[in-house]
Amino acid sequence: MSDFREISPAELTDNPFTLIGQDWLLVTAAAEGRANTMTASWGGLGVLWSLPVATIYLRPQRYTKEFVDKSAAFSLSVLDDSHRATLSYLGAVSGRDEDKIKKSGLTIAHEGEVPYFKESRLVLICRKLYRQAMNPENFVVPALINQWYSQEDYHTMYVGAIEKILQRG
Ligand SMILES: Cc1cc2nc3c(=O)[nH]c(=O)nc-3n(C[C@H](O)[C@H](O)[C@H](O)COP(=O)(O)O)c2cc1C
Questions:
Q1: Distance in Å, CA 38 to ligand 1 centroid
Q2: What pLDDT digit, counting tens, does each position of 65-91 carry?
Q3: 148 partner at 20 to 30 Å CA-CA among 8, 78, 112, 168?
Q4: Considering only CA atoms, which of 164, 155, 152, 151 is closest in space to residue 131?
């Protein structure tokens, strides 16, 4: 734990657009004594119900979704660019098919019950507040359905309260 110091949401200086869209996140959750992780580049950081929140979007076929669904919490780990190949691997292979975490060489640490990666430069520990599957009827711009959901695999949105932010150094 000494590698990290806790900061408040107001102290976070990262740009959310580069943090999520370019640096990418590892979404990690544990259930029934096992953990799984996947790369995500869609999401948001903001305020909802007067709480600091992180929002992620998981397609139904993601193995990680099963872990997030079974768990009360998940983590979002941000790694620096030296880990880019690992992030690509964790975003291309499913934990259903390989022991991805072991193969990645990353090290799991825990904040309470919530797994995250020791190699991270930033970690958000999030407690699940809300989940909702996207509904095709609710798209204001139907072209998005053709663009993103040809297999009708609509994302489920998860809103998590940011309970702790750990920053390296
Ligand atoms: C850069 C990048 C970003 C991704 N973003 C998301 C995302 O936001 N939501 C999602 O459902 N899948 C996303 N994926 C796909 C999953 O990471 C990928 O399908 C992964 O293999 C799922 O692993 P799992 O089955 O072990 O959960 C992304 C993949 C990459 C490479």
A1: 5
A2: 999 999 999 999 999 999 999 999 999
A3: 78
A4: 155
